[in-house]
Amino acid sequence: MAIVDAPESQWYARRAGVTAVVVGLTSDTLVTAVSSVFCPLLLAVAIGALAGVVCAVVAAVLVRIWPVLRVLWWWSIEITAAVGAVGGWVTLAHLTSSWLASAVALVAALGCLVPRRVRQFVWAWAWCLVVRHRLRLYFATLARAVVRTGGPRPVALPLLLWARPTPAGERVWLWLRPGLSLEALEGKAPLIAVVCIAKQVRIAPASERYAALLRVDIARRDPLAGRIDSPLALLIPGLLNNQADVPVSPAVPPVGLELADIEDPAPEPPRGGRR
Predict the structure, then answer these.
(1) CA angle in degrees (0–180, nearest 5) for 240-242-247
(2) Helix, strand or coil, per DSSP, at residue 217
(3) Residue 154 — φ and ψ, nearest 5°?
(4) Is 163 helix (H, G, I), strand (E, B) or coil?
(5) Which of 143, 148, 138 is nearest to 188 (CA)?
(6) pLDDT 10s digits, 102-132
(7) How does pLDDT run across 26-61, given as a tens digit for each residue?
(8) What are all long-range contacts of 144-150, with beta carbons under 8 Å and residues at least 24 apart?
(9) Are 218 and 199 in contact (CB under 8 A)?
(10) Angle at the Cα of 126 (from 121 to 127), degrees rounded to 5?
(11) 0.70 exceeded by the pTM?
(12) Are residues 149 and 140 in contact, defined by beta-carbon separation less than 8 angstroms?
């Protein structure tokens, strides 16, 4: 399975060649012109040619491997967590023993899974990672659809900046690339909700200056569905000593109320009127 699709890889290969020629010629000309002021012309031409070749190679490599760098950015959190966990275990095993390092790793894993609050915290952030990859899958599918229809170039996938948990689900910030807009994504919110295994998705601008910065709110549960204990009842005198009952209102709206049954308040006499 290829990390980058073949049509996209070919397009970036052609782009890398064009970039190398442009950057190389530009760097060669500029460096030669500047060097000719401080050294003989032949030496300046040689320095400019060397600088042009170096700059052309660097620019071409960056453009060519950009899809791979993008994939590494998508998996940066998982890669960092895996490297940190394995590196910490190996370091502890070298400092002490493998059995002690394994015991510490087991205790740390149980500490993340057994306590309820810690488990909810870890689960919420794990969903943030899942949502980032699900959004990436949706935009990658959209890009493949454009390529299959004969588009001139692959769609530039948005940059997934950050994701954090919310009481209703997750919130993700996107930086759109050319070819996408808020209006184009608002109509696809139900499709994004299906991809993210959620109930509802709302897309809104996240900045007043930049139209490319969007906020995606993913709702997979209703935070107001549960019971919320109010501290106001504790302010009733005698409640702490079980000497009073908390009154409960049925909160039933009035039925059959007509406007004609409501008496108008008596008009107030004019104040400070002229005689």
Answers:
(1) 90
(2) strand
(3) -65, 150
(4) strand
(5) 138
(6) 898 899 888 888 888 888 898 999 999 999 8
(7) 999 999 999 988 888 888 899 999 999 999 999 999
(8) 144/5, 147/5, 147/7, 147/8
(9) no
(10) 105
(11) no
(12) no
